[in-house]
Each structure stands twice: as C-alpha cells, then as structure tokens.
Amino acid sequence: MQTIVSIPHQEYPATVRDLVEEKLQHLLKFNERIVSLRAVLTREADEHRVELVATVGHGVTLVVDSRGATLETSLADSLERMRRVLTRHKTKLETKSRRGGRAGH
C-alpha cells in the first residue's frame, strides 16, 4: 500500500508526517484491498483540516474530511470516519458477492 502525506504550506513539524503515516498503516486492517492512502493536512486560521483519500481495488475512491480546533482531534476524527467508510465498503462487497454478485436481483 502506498501512503502519501501532503502538507502544502509546511505548517507542521516533520514528526507529524511520520505520525500520520504510521496511523494510515493501521487502516489496512479494516480493508485489505486498499491500494493507496493520501492525507492532506492544512491549517486555516484557527482550524485544522485533515482530508483522507483512499483508493480501493477496482478504482473506488473513498474520501473523508474533518476539521477541528487541534490537529490531534481532526486527525482522530478523520481516521475514525475512514475506518467506518472502509468497513462499510468491505461489508457491502462481501454481501454483494454472497448474493451472486448482481445488484438488484
């Protein structure tokens, strides 16, 4: 799995990049079909924004966005949201394959 951490205006120390990459690796256990994960960290005035983009097999792209007063809260919130989205996507695929793979039948 490829991980990319983007900090456009370099507002955070270098250790933040390592921390975010480590936390992104943990998301792999919720969906093993993840091809790549990208995190974009930005700071807008007094607000921290974390956007996570996951590319999953067959060209599916899942996106979550979180804003908060601190980087830690917005990162934790976006990781929890991505965990739920990945789990829901995996469950949806498993349910679909158990029904024969054809939606609507």
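^ that was protein a. below is b, sequence first then the tokens
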Amino acid sequence: MKRIITWSGLALLAAVVLAAPASAQANVAGMWTITIQGPEGPAEAQAELVQDGSTFTGTISVDQAEGASIDNGTIEGNTISFVLTVSVQGQSFPLEVTGEVDGNMIEGEMTVPDFGGFPFSAERQP
C-alpha cells in the first residue's frame, strides 16, 4: 500500500512539474534611467534596449564616455547579462554587467577591470 501511495505521489508531482509553464522571460525593452554607484559618487546614464526573445541590444548614453555599446545581451528568466564596451579618451573598456529584473526596475553590478564591481539600479521610463 505504501508503495502505491509513493508511486502515485511521484506521478502526481511529475505531472504538475511537466504541466507548469516555463518561467516567464523578463521584458527589458524600452528606455531606462540608470544610476551607477561609482568610486566618485553616483553617475547617471540613459539606455534604450530592444529585446528579441532571450537576447537584447541597445544604446547607452553616459556623460563621462565618448561612446558605449551593448554586446552579448542575454535574458534568462529575470537575470540579464551583457558586456558594455565604453570608450573614454580613445580607449575602450569592456564592463561585465549582470542584474535582476523586477518589473520596471533592475538591480545589479557592473564589473570594471582593475577597479572591481559597482552596484547599479535602473528604472524603466513610461
């Protein structure tokens, strides 16, 4: 009897897991205002992100940089990651960026070579 109950319970659990929808993909498309907590205090940036399924591209405007591009933007559930290549005084710097999307907010960290990681937050604009 215990064996029947155990197998029935396992079969029911398997049916629930298989029938559950895959975790929803976060939506990052739109205009974002980003605040980076850098070594010289907070800095703001503006981003426009375009999403295509589980990938995204976009542009970021940062006052302190001559240019910035997003490469390898991926979304897995609510987790985003991308490489932000920033040009400052003729030199390019790749920044590794990861974050968690929660509706119209993103919280995460930018890792700058030779300087470590800096937290950032972003808010989607209406």
